Amino acid sequence: MDILFIDESEQINREQKSHFVLLGTIVSSEKLIPLERYIFRIREKYKLDNLKKLRTDRNIQPNQRLAISKELYGSLQDFNVTLISSIIGSLSMRKYSKIFNYREAMTFIIERFYFYLHHSNKEGMIILDSNTREVTKPIRKEIYEYILSEEKREGKIRKRIYGPVFFCEDQFSHVIQLSDLC
Questions:
Q1: Using CB atoms within 10 A of its CB, is residue 169 exposed (0-12), middle (13-18) or buried (19+)?
Q2: Contact 75/35 with Cβ under 8 angstroms?
Q3: How many whole angstroms from its chain centre is CA 145?
Q4: d(C-alpha 31, C-alpha 52), whole Å
Q5: Is 93 in contact with 87 (CB distance < 8 Å)?
Q6: Burial status of residue 31 (CB atoms within 10 A of its CB: 0-12, 13-18, 19 or more)
Q7: Most buried among 35, 40, 67, 99, by the most CB within 10 A?
Q8: What is the tens place of the pLDDT at every residue in 87-140?
């Protein structure tokens, strides 16, 4: 089984409404725990509480930031991690509501995950960063119904993706933190 971890871009330039990004990190269940351990060792080595500090902590020197990033992104290849994303641009951000844009980005990511699983002949499940819980609350049932729908890909999505979507706080998942960095 493969697991899709999804995180969203934290800040949207409210004045310009420049863009919105959902990033999915796909990890096989067999490699999840070794990957989590590997990332934990990197965090310990560089004394990072959370990988998000790579973006926000100005005390991290550029050469150290680059070294940490190389190790983290090297782990993507070493553990056969696949990334998928959905980017909503400024036109949609100005024209449509955040809920509409989030729904469209999420269904795109789910559909890409389905194709990935279909091509790999695997099944999967989805875990979202719990910070997205408030954003997804109005459309959570729609996401669940989208996965289970007989109309979407003749009902094949539900044959590959476990219907309920789970939530996890990023402080408890290094893979969600990694998704946030990517």
A1: exposed
A2: yes
A3: 20
A4: 22
A5: no
A6: middle
A7: 35
A8: 877 666 667 677 777 788 888 999 999 999 999 999 999 988 776 556 667 777
